[in-house]
Amino acid sequence: MKKPFFTGACTALVTPFLNGQVNYPMMQILLQRQIDAGLEAAVICGTTGESATLSDAEKLELFARCKEFVGDRMKIIAGAGSNATEHTVELSIAAQREGVDGLLVVSPYYNKGTSEGLFRHYLSIAHAVSIPVILYNVPSRTGVDIPVSVYKRLCPIPNIAGVKEATTDINKILQIRYECEDNLPIWCGNDDMTVPVMSLGGKGVISVVSNLLPQEVQAMAIAALDGDFDTAAELQCRLYSVTRLLQCQVNPVPVKAAMKCIGYDCGGCRLPLTELNEEEARKLKDYFS
């Protein structure tokens, strides 16, 4: 049985920009807000953090400066995935050198890969570093759904820490639990699936909504961990209106706009992502006003 690398909510943090560059003072404010809400971990340079449009140099500086700021108060998980194994290994080694606590590694996208290729990809990363590696399955973005058979082969590796499953197929969560038992901790990757996933033994959620409402998302996750699924389900339903609003356009465009509505101006997104249209922006402003 593997001890979970973290439990409860972990925020997939936005990357704030100012005049096209990373806004480090705002990043510190965002991190402190997560710490104050009691979260154990944050993902830096994940999908929500616009990893696709950040250079490796920007990512490594973010990893280093975020870890320096939080110290031992929070775990920093570095988004280190790409669709090239060699590049992912290099970035993972460099991220470990900058002091991050763990890695979140998305499956190779666009060029995809067979089950054997996916296994070797993650095996190469796990062998290259000593810190925990969280697998990240998000088929809606990558075009690849990592088979449970790959998880079963990977879970005996000591530093394969678990998987972020961004699936709407609850049966897959059940299959993972059945095949891997307690040797592969699962974190939900879709905010609206948190309680269902945790009811099958998931250890928490890597959340977008917790950028906005960290205390509320953490309360939901803790209730589920405590086995109080009536409370967890009630909190999930309360958060559903926000979750739906944030689906009006591709992530992280809506959540960055929403952050501005609540007083945290994180700038816009880098191209090819563009701002919300007038109606979408009005709905967000009305909701958070």
Task: Tell me what the structure shows.
The chain has 12 helices and 10 strands. The chain is of the alpha/beta class and 289 residues long. The longest helix has 17 residues. The chain is globular and about 50 Å long. Strands 1-4-5-6-7-8-9-10 form an 8-stranded parallel β-barrel, surrounded by 5 helices. It has a single domain, classed as Aldolase class I (TIM Barrel), CATH 3.20.20.
Architecture per CATH nomenclature, i.e. the level-2 architecture: Alpha-Beta Barrel
Shape field: globular
- Please tell me the total number of domains: 1
Looking at the structure, the CATH topology is: TIM Barrel
Span between N and C termini?
46 Å
Helical proportion? Answer: 40-55%
